[in-house]
Amino acid sequence: MHPYQIEFIELARQYEVLKFGEFTLKSGRVSPYFFNAGAFDSGRALAALGRCYAQRIVDSGLEFDVLLGPAYKGIPLAAATAVALADQHGRDVPFAYNRKEAKTHGEGGVLVGAPLKGRVLVIDDVITAGTAVREVIEMIESAGASLAGVAIGLNRQERGAGELSAIQEIEQAHAVPVLSIIDMAHIIEYLENQGGDSAGALAAMRDYREHYGVA
Ligand SMILES: O=P(O)(O)OC[C@H]1O[C@H](OP(=O)(O)OP(=O)(O)O)[C@H](O)[C@@H]1O
Ligand SMILES: O=C(O)c1cc(=O)[nH]c(=O)[nH]1
């Protein structure tokens, strides 16, 4: 694992973003773990998180013109990534986000920040069924821009509607990469290295992967 991947997992554990237990997902699946990015709730956490996303994006070599953070949890993630790209990598990138409900006074509208022009990189936490990302892709296309890719924190590596994962479906439909900082496999690897206390969580994760995992 890269140092930024270990940092990301440890940060997620420390802020109780990554929890083990029994959680019902939007899809109705009962998962032995859950990733709640809303719990990255301090300046230090967001700064570290921004560095992890920025490193992943820079390492990928992906070219893009604008960052877009979908409401709500994508907004602080995209903001933190924009700050880290400027501070750590000398790249001052335009940054935008959306409102879930259109504003009807003042400047009005749904989009806030930089205009969506050129190649747009979406920053979010998790993709499960892909609904949120599909909505945001429509927004990008109706603004006359194009999707450069999507960067997320965790790839749950689960089946979508068919045999492919929701992420693979997006990659194939739009011919763009979905970059993730960590995959479910990294969480399993992390638990394996922890030994002892993590045995129960590890067994449940392996069982879940048998049922819903994709290669
Ligand atoms: O791939 P999907 O099945 O769409 O699920 C994943 C999305 O769901 C959550 O956002 P949500 O839209 O619930 O909004 P939030 O950011 O306000 O929590 C999460 O932050 C992901 O963006
Ligand atoms: O599938 C979901 O609903 C889901 C899974 C997860 O790990 N985190 C999250 O915010 N949503």
Automatic annotation (TrEMBL):
Role summary: Catalyzes the transfer of a ribosyl phosphate group from 5-phosphoribose 1-diphosphate to orotate, leading to the formation of orotidine monophosphate (OMP).
Domain of life: Bacteria
Gene name of the record: pyrE
Protein name per its UniProtKB record: Orotate phosphoribosyltransferase
PANTHER family per record: OROTATE PHOSPHORIBOSYLTRANSFERASE 1-RELATED (PTHR46683)
Positions annotated to bind 5-phospho-alpha-D-ribose 1-diphosphate: 26, 72-73, 99-100, 103, 105, 124-132
Pathway: Pyrimidine metabolism; UMP biosynthesis via de novo pathway; UMP from orotate: step 1/2
GO terms (BP aspect): 'de novo' pyrimidine nucleobase biosynthetic process; 'de novo' UMP biosynthetic process; pyrimidine ribonucleoside biosynthetic process
Segments forming domain Phosphoribosyltransferase: 41-158
Taxonomic lineage: Bacteria, Pseudomonadati, Pseudomonadota, Gammaproteobacteria, Cellvibrionales
EC number: 2.4.2.10
